[in-house]
Amino acid sequence: MNILIVDDHPLFRHALIQAVRQGFPLVQIKEAATVKEFYAYLESGAEPDLVLLDLNLPGASGFSALVHVRAQYPSIPIIVVSAHEEVSIIQRAMTHGAMGYIPKSANPDLISEAIQAVSEGDLWLPPNLPHHNHVEVCTADETALAARIQSLTPQQFRVLMMVAEGLLNKQIAYDLDVSEATIKAHVTAIFRKLNVQNRTQAVLAISVLNIQDKKM
Fold this sequence. Notes:
Elements: E1 2-6, H1 10-23, E2 28-32, H2 35-43, E3 50-53, H3 64-72, E4 78-82, H4 87-95, E5 100-103, H5 108-119, H6 140-150, H7 154-164, H8 169-176, H9 180-194, H10 199-206
Parallel strand pairs: 1-2, 1-3, 3-4, 4-5
Helix pairs in contact: 1-5, 3-6, 7-9, 8-9
GO molecular function: DNA binding
Organism: Acinetobacter boissieri
Keywords: DNA-binding, Phosphoprotein
């Protein structure tokens, strides 16, 4: 099995690697610390059998990376590994396409159990959360925005996340090594797909995917 761990904290990545190897000694493990590295790995053609994904990731906004990657690579199962343990956040992650959710406080046995279940095509949730409770937790606005995020190309998604960070077109063009005209074209396409008129509206639109405990 080939597993990709996506988390920006080196110490936690190391701890997670050890926990995974405890249950699966022969597994091949790759690492990514940012959304940029995550997509670079996926676009290299080396699709993993399983992804362990942190929600608080540089280059992403809340659930946006989960939503977009699930749309672009629907065959790759994703388990969210997060410090957030609120039930509503776990439910939202599952609604947005995660096949499992592991709290970062979980012991190695639970991590192995989750990986085994998801690799066999099953869903896995923390023992204290009934499996049927992850439905109908997202608002209509969040569901609609998720569908629009899914329609973005990988490059448009990168540009949107950089817009959300407050970068100007010139800065984005430099970072992505393309022309400013190309970025302007991407931004125009993004606005159209998100049904917004400007950067402020775009940032406000994607804020519905932010991680916050929505009391139901």
